[in-house]
Amino acid sequence: MPAASASKNIIARGVGSNAFSFIIRFGARASFLYIGARLYGAANYGVFTMATAVVELAAPLASLGLRRMIFPWLEEETGGAAPRPPIHILLDALLLAAIGGAAMSVLLVAATQWLPSAVVSDSLRLAFALLIPSVLLQNTGDIALAATRWTHKMRYEVIGRGVVEPYVLTAVVLATWYGGLTETGMLLGYWAGSLALALFSLWAARDCLGVLQLRHWRPGAGALVQRARSLWPASGSDFLSSLAQRIDLYLVGFLLGDTPAGVYGVLRQLRTPVLQVRQAFDGILTPLTARTMNTDGDVTTGEATAAATRVVLTIQLGLVLLMAAAGDALLDLFGAGYAAGYAALLAMVLAETINGAFGVSELILYYRRPALALKVNVILIAIATAGIPLLTPRFGILGASLAMLAAAVIAAVLRRYWLVGLGVRRPFFHASMPVAAAGIAVLCGTGGGWIARASALPGASDGWQKAVPPLLALAVYVLLIGVWRKVQPGVLSLDRYRIN
Q: How do residues 59-78 score in pLDDT, each as one tens digit?
């Protein structure tokens, strides 16, 4: 029991810290989103969104997957027969990422300049050239902050990702808009935020892992080459995972143009709370999954990730219901043309819920059989590549969201199938209760909405009548989840994760 209690405390602290970071970051994101979408306009925001998406696509490949794979590397080399200082392992990782980032920047800038004018505007071509090299700074921040999480100190992630990067970005973007730099202001802001993040993360890593001892750091070329080769499968998996998460945005931008890409980019930002539920758990569950697999094996780890799936899904479905209530009003804030994306937003948050909750178990595939995680993402990309061009001519951005929703469902089925092959056989309906509760809640909300419309007083607000069904559904959902927890105590417990 003491071990279970300690596990709960560490996970709770880690998740709480990340959640607090996301709340702080969301304040900056909301400000930036309003500035970018409302002040700079949908077309400029679309250019910025496409350019940053390419940076985020290049980052995992350039970093060789070290944002996750640094954890087993640290475990191996600090606990072996000839242990090395963890700060030197981090320096090795940053050196590999710097080499990969420089090479990737050169290749991508050259490739984007050769894209045909039919799919890339001049503004987007310039944005690619200016922003892609910032992948070096983003990778520095990601890897250094990952090393701080290895020590179970989450405050640096909170400050770096939640305060330093987003608020510097927002401040610079606002200042450049007042300065009249309407075409490059957001790009300059991204550079400023990335630089601030990289500098802070290096300081944080030194504070967690100890002094640099540069005189004693000996990065062996042969060992690094061997390490880089071993990381390529994980890096390829991360790259394809990143591509699978953004393929819809690329296709919308290339097929429909900068302005629809801007509207679609706003929808992607509004789904952020749902996305960040999973990310709040990832920060602490990623190293704990590696440790649990190393000590207790895949079956126990599968039971732990099943519990994590239930927790993540329960929270995310509540946010989906809340988004259904507030999505219309949120889109209206950004001006004409955005409100039409409400249906696409709902499809998008449902897809993110499925990916987020049922993707927790992919960490097992990632560490044990990275080729299988690779296959899942290849199939996701293939579905999006086929479905989005087929659906967008008729349905616009809604078609893209529906294609990604279908891809998320298929990916969840594939992950389960391959986990069974590793001996991880979780009960088929282990996460059915949150889904059933959400379904019942939606039915109650729909009935309540019909009653509200039928009994509405003359002059009653249309917006309020629209909000009644999802708000009522949310209330019913919370009640049902509370009953479930009382009937089955511990069903949302994460005490199977190994902490030491």
A: 888 877 777 777 777 777 67
Where in the chain are the domains?
A: 2-487
Helix axes 221-256, 258-270, angle to 10 degrees: 120
The string over 257-274, giving b where at least 16 C-beta atoms fall within 10 Å of a residue's C-beta and e elsewhere, is: ebbbbbbbbbbbbbbbbb
Q: Any idea what the Cα angle at residue 377 is, between residues 62 and 137, rounded to 5°?
A: 20
Q: What is the predicted pLDDT for the residue at 21?
A: 59
Q: Is 456 helix (H, G, I), strand (E, B) or coil?
A: coil
Is the pLDDT at 204 greater than 80? The verdict is yes
Question: Residue 110 and residue 307: Cα distance in Å, rounded?
Answer: 45
Query: Do you know the residue count of the chain?
Result: 500
Summarize pLDDT for 27-36 with one digit per residue, the tens: 777 788 888 8
Q: What angle do CA 185, 194, 119 make, to 5 degrees?
A: 55
Q: Specify whether the CB–CB gap between 175 and 184 falls below 8 A.
A: no
Distance (Å, rounded) from C-alpha 369 to C-alpha 362?
Answer: 10
The whole-angstrom separation of Cα 230 and Cα 64 is 9
Q: What is the pTM of this model?
A: 0.74
CA 459 to mean position of chain CA atoms: 42
Contact 304, 286 (CB under 8 A): no
Residues 6+ positions from 110 with CB-CB distance below 8 Å: none
Contacts of 90 (CB under 8 A, 6+ apart): 70, 143, 144, 147, 205, 209
Q: What is the pLDDT of residues 445-464, one digit of tens each?
A: 777 767 766 665 455 555 56
Whether 291 and 499 have beta carbons less than 8 Å apart is answered as yes
Q: Report d(CA 300, CA 42) in Å as an integer.
A: 48
Q: What is the 3-state secondary structure (H, E, C) of 220-243?
A: CHHHHHHHHHHHHHHHHHHHHHHH
Cβ neighbours for 109, distance < 8 A, ≥ 6 positions apart: 128, 129, 132, 133
Q: What is the pLDDT of residues 343-395, one digit of tens each?
A: 899 999 999 999 888 888 777 887 777 777 778 888 888 999 999 999 998 99
Closest CA to 37 of 339, 325, 347, 256: 339
Contact between 40 and 176 under an 8 Å Cβ cutoff? The reply is no
